[in-house]
Amino acid sequence: MHALRISILFIFAFAFPLTQAQDAESEYVISRNSAPDPARFELTQVAAGFTRPLYVTHASDGSNRIFLVEQVGKVWILKNGLVQARPYLDIEELISPGALTQPFSEQGLLGLAFHPNYRHNGVFFVNYTDRLGSTVVARYQVDQSNPDFADANSGQILFQLSQPYANHNGGHIEFGPDGYLYIALGDGGAANDPLGAGQNRQLLLGSILRIDVDSAEPYAIPSDNPFVDEVNARGEIWAYGLRNVWRFSFDRLTGDMYMADVGQNRREEINYQAAGSVGGENYGWNVWEGSQVFAGGNAPNHVPPVFDYSHAFGCSVTGGVIYRGGAIPDLQAVYLFGDWCSGRVWGLWRDQALAWQSRELMKTDLPISSFGEDEAGEVYVIDYGGALYRFDPAGD
Q: Is the CB of residue 361 less than 8 Å from the CB of residue 36?
């Protein structure tokens, strides 16, 4: 591969469950000896006409379908490059009215995650704010007669949390390599963290949660969650000190976790958690905003961001994914992310010494609402104005 250094990363079964494609010891590209070259790739529009699109993902079921989430309550399938005539799921009647009527809202249908065994059980999960503004995570089932449609009447609420304000709802959900469901919750909203949620482990707000959706109803708390035995902390919390994570992701090869946390008014940040972490990281909000002191005070076990940037370069970070596709070798092992306001796209990677490096890769005119992967690991960018783009080799 062009300009890549191959590093050996040993992942043992107790730290990272094995898949059919992995041996107990595997070789992954985790570092590079040079920056990716922006001249080698470009964005290609693959679909348009969506209403406030917010996320794109796949079901890992061998179908190669792409699922796109609209904030207004619909999920669409792109099949063989074409958007299907009817939505896969439509729950518009359940979500916050403001997401349908306001020019901009942080409410609505915000997240979608397919069960790791979706190919066989047809189960998936959504995260939305309901008509009262509360966060809801619900389980749904595919239609038994047609795999291109969900059973809209199969919804079962497994998690619900009242939100004190209409913003900072987080909303991302994703299954980790351990098979547990991770949920991003913002600090509750308003500004400056008036609830002190970021550093309060008695509140679920301002955290990443980790729950077991298979062992109990409505869910179980994994016994190895970091605060499960603490009296003054919620057992669901996996990591805390977060303001409003707008997309997190797991490297599909290593299991490393990347979190993009939207800042207050000065710094936007990317946080990193290595595979095999036992959880409990404190990412600092609101004592810290990115790499700078915000409110001050004490943030025990503070883990600083691996990258942050000032509002001279944007105003709201949009988290992305590590590129693991095959179409653009020069992007291998690069974390791709962007900014909602400036349209900038950056690459973040580790060099031979495993030190973090970054480069601005392109300046678009898009309000970037999300990044996502297809089943092959190719990466997509969502334009909140209604279009879906893919990273492609330049000139193709």
A: yes
Q: Which pTM does this prediction carry?
A: 0.93
Report angle CA 379, 377, 251 to the nearest 5 degrees. Answer: 95
Per-residue tokens: 383? 């334009």
Amino acid at the residue 299: A
Mean of the per-residue pLDDT values of the chain: 93
Query: Please, what is the Cα angle at 177 between 331 and 130, to 5 degrees?
Result: 95
Strand pairing partners for 379? 373
Q: Tell me, what's the pLDDT at 395?
A: 87
Separation CA 363–CA 343 (nearest Å): 6
Judge contact between 241 and 282, C-beta under 8 A. yes
For 244, list phi and psi in degrees, rounded to 5.
Answer: -165, 85
For tokens 């109803």, name the residue: 217
Alpha-carbon distances, residue 384 vs 17, 47, 166, 288 (angstroms): 35, 13, 19, 29
Place of tokens 């989430």: 69
- Is the distance from CB of 84 to CB of 67 less than 8 angstroms? no
Do the beta carbons of residue 377 and residue 324 sit within 8 Å?
A: yes
Q: Which tens digit of pLDDT belongs to each residue from 276-330?
A: 999 999 999 999 999 999 999 999 999 999 999 999 999 999 999 999 999 999 9
Mean pLDDT check: name the lowest of 5-9, 195-199, 240-244: 5-9
